[in-house]
Design a protein that fits this description.
Length: about 280
């Protein structure tokens, strides 16, 4: 509730990363004319033919491809203002930023041990809100499993898989770079939960988690965060549910925070669902 207003405000900064062809509007042309002092010079700088550039600026061309706009942004060294500048400019500028961040992040990932890559990937996925909306591709059946598999093997295959969509490119950057402090806080909670597990068991957990439905993944996300919240060393006894015994033993978790985390929901039906999912994780 505390962050609800902030999250709503951030929705104004969601960009259309799927568009690749734009209307050559008056707004777009007027914006470009401000920076094109010479057709010839701009043509050379952006690697766009003089005739094509003229047709864009005088309106003879009715649509403009995203690739062309990116060439203009780079060639004219534009620094768009997301609040005021035309949407096609801002969208393509964001794509450039995402691509640059993606390839920089890949270089950093190459220097990380495979086990740590899995943790980074899992942490990022488990802490992102509205995954069906923000990660429509990666949250599909089989896609998260594939990403986990590839990030531990040849990084060239992982690069090919994650570079096909801006969604997955941005996700890769989030694996390495700091996100909003609230999201980073969620990451810390899940990281401590995963840190309890031996490396081999953590890998097995990651694969099993990826095979779950998205609704069941959310249940595990909540359980992992609550586990760390309740791991406070309280001096009282609470019985471990029979359904949790094998799960706790297999993944080397503590009994008390595991029990409290499984009972965090006020709804009995939801608690039963959490226990069912935890039993299935092996």
């Amino acid at each position: 509730e505390y962050y609800k207003e902030t999250i709503q405000d951030c929705k104004y900064f969601i960009f259309d990363l799927k568009g690749s062809v734009y209307k050559n509007s008056d707004l777009l042309r007027n914006y470009l004319r401000r920076f094109v002092k010479s057709i010839s010079s701009a043509s050379v700088d952006s690697n766009i033919s003089r005739g094509k550039l003229s047709a864009i600026l005088n309106g003879k061309t009715k649509t403009v491809r995203g690739e062309t706009i990116r060439k203009l942004i780079k060639g004219l060294k534009l620094k768009p203002n997301p609040l005021n500048d035309p949407a096609p400019i801002v969208n393509e500028w964001m794509k450039i930023k995402i691509e640059d961040a993606f390839f920089n992040s890949l270089e950093k990932l190459k220097g990380i041990k495979p086990n740590d890559r899995i943790i980074s990937l899992l942490l990022t996925y488990m802490t992102i809100f509205d995954r069906k909306e923000r990660l429509p591709y990666l949250s599909r059946k089989g896609k998260l499993e594939r990403a986990i598999e590839l990030c531990t093997a040849d990084m060239s295959e992982f690069t090919n898989f994650m570079s096909n969509r801006y969604e997955t490119m941005r996700f890769t950057s989030d694996m390495i770079n700091e996100m909003h402090p609230f999201i980073e806080g969620r990451k810390c909670l899940v990281k401590k939960f995963l840190g309890r597990m031996p490396k081999k068991r953590m890998r097995m957990f990651a694969v099993s988690y990826a095979e779950l439905t998205e609704e069941d993944r959310k249940r595990i996300d909540s359980f992992a965060r609550n586990y760390t919240r309740y791991d406070l060393g309280w001096e009282f006894y609470v019985g471990l549910p029979v359904e949790l015994k094998e799960f706790v033993k297999f993944f080397h978790l503590k009994k008390r925070p595991s029990t409290l985390a499984s009972f965090a929901s006020e709804r009995p039906a939801e608690r039963n669902k959490i226990l069912r999912v935890l039993q299935a994780l092996r």
